[in-house]
Each structure stands twice: as C-alpha cells, then as structure tokens.
C-alpha cells in the first residue's frame, strides 16, 4: 500500500495523472489504476475526478493528512536500519532566523559538509516562523521551545542579551545610570508587529518593566547592529551577536549591574526544532549533534 500512497501523493503534487506519470515513469493509465487499487483497498473514494480537475474528497483529505506521516516514518525506518557505520547522505533543508544563521550557523557549514561529503544543505535565513509540517523544512532553529507537541526540540544555547551602545553615542548623549534613564535615549528595537516595546531590567529582587521608543525597528538584529555601531542609539541584543563588538571596543555595555532582556521571563533559549518522527533521519541527527558539539565548544 505504501507505493500506492506515494503515487497518490505524486498525483496531488503534479495535479494530473499524466504529469504524475511523467515523474514516476509510468503510463497515465497505470497511475489511474493504482489510485483505483488504493481506493478499493481502503473502501472509500479519495478523489473527485474530471477532465480538467482533480480534488480530494473529504475522506481523501483525512487520509492524505495522515498518510504523509506514514511515508515519512517508513522512509526514516528504512534509513535507521542501515548500518550504523553508513555515512549520512542526502539533502537537509534548514530554516534559521537571519542574524543567528549568518553569524553562528553559516560559518560552521563548510566543516560539516567536509565531515559528511555525501550530504547537501539548503539553508534559508528568514525571520519568518516556518511550518515544518506543511513546508519542506527538516530543521528550524528558533528562540523558545515549539508550542506544537508534534515537534521535537533540542537545546543549543541560552539566549543571553546585552544592553549596548557605541562609545561615541554615549559620549554625546550620556551614559545611563539607572534603567529609567533608558527611556530618555533613542532605542534600536526588534519589531513586534506594531506592538509597544518594553525592556525588562533585573537586579536581585528588583524588576523594572520600561516602555522604550526609537526611530529604527527591525525584525532581525543585523540592521540594528549596524546602526548602533555608527552611533544611532542603544540596543538590546543577544550576546552571541554583540559580544565580539564589545570586545573590539565598537560597543560598550550599559548598566552592567543589571540584566536586561526583551521579555519578562528572560530572553529564552535557542533550540533546534524538527518533526517528531519515530525514526530520526540519520543526516538530521548528525547535523544536530554537530551543532551541539560546535556551539557548546564555543561557550
């Protein structure tokens, strides 16, 4: 039945029996008979057919929703039965939020591909939250655990944040001495879909939640970093993005006695998120192990 399911999924992807047949190297009539056989085995009609259009029946929609998982499990089971010495291979599709992908993940990829020469990677640096169940993405790297219980997550690192500005900006506009002073500065902001921005400050049992404003906002940190380095304002970004600039003297930490964060309960942790199949893809498992090894080694 699995091969019949694969044919059905290809028909849906291609939009017709003839186009699916071209991909599968089958005659359109053989494709149609395969769908007939699948429907006969299931005892339901899966497709509404016409000369111009194919559409799933209600039963078909329900079946396909779960059949994709069966195919993934079957493929991963076969892969898991291969010798443990077999070299991981294939293409891994990864989605990473832009700044972390550019600064942390991208510099590691050449070493991974050298270590596993039969592997290939397609990486998308995008601050959009991808849907792993609907899009062709094997692994997403995100801040925070996924809310979807069908997804698995492995912690990569804490997402600590630093409050910084260029020495030139601070010389001109003054160095904040209290969290409240931040409200008198131009703050470079991570945008939250037009919601008001708040920064949180903690020291011991003290906690301040302060509304902040500024003339530059971005969904990603890269534009904010560039602006901060040229003296545009104060920013609050992850330490993995700002620590090197602090070390070089391009940025200066503000209010070092306070822990500043974007959210009341801290700035979270960074996770590798993937679909929770029973039989992990060996290449996916190898890449996650590699990330943990490299990132933990840098801390």
Describe this structure in words.
This protein has 299 residues and is α/β, with parallel strands linked by helices. The protein folds into three domains: 79 residues, Winged helix-like DNA-binding domain superfamily/Winged helix DNA-binding domain (Arc Repressor Mutant, subunit A, Orthogonal Bundle), CATH 1.10.10; 101 residues, Periplasmic binding protein-like II (D-Maltodextrin-Binding Protein, domain 2); 101 residues, D-Maltodextrin-Binding Protein, domain 2 (3-Layer(aba) Sandwich). Helices cover 39% and strands 25% of the residues. It has nine helices and 15 strands. The strands form four sheets. The chain has a five-stranded mixed beta sheet with strand order 4-3-5-15-6, covered by helices on one side. Strands 11-8-12-7-13 form a five-stranded mixed beta sheet. α5 packs across α9. It is elongated, with a radius of gyration of 25 Å. It starts with a helix and ends with a helix.
Explain the layout of strands and helices.
Layout: H1 2-14, H2 17-24, H3 28-42, E1 47-49, E2 54-56, H4 58-80, E3 90-96, H5 98-115, E4 119-125, E5 139-143, E6 151-158, E7 161-165, H6 167-173, E8 187-190, E9 197-203, E10 206-212, E11 216-218, H7 222-229, E12 234-238, H8 239-247, E13 252-253, E14 259-261, E15 269-275, H9 282-298
Parallel strand pairs: 3-4, 3-5, 8-11, 8-12
Antiparallel strand pairs: 1-2, 5-15, 6-15, 7-12, 7-13, 9-10, 9-14
Domain HTH lysR-type: 1-57
Family: Belongs to the LysR transcriptional regulatory family.
Keywords: DNA-binding, Transcription, Transcription regulation
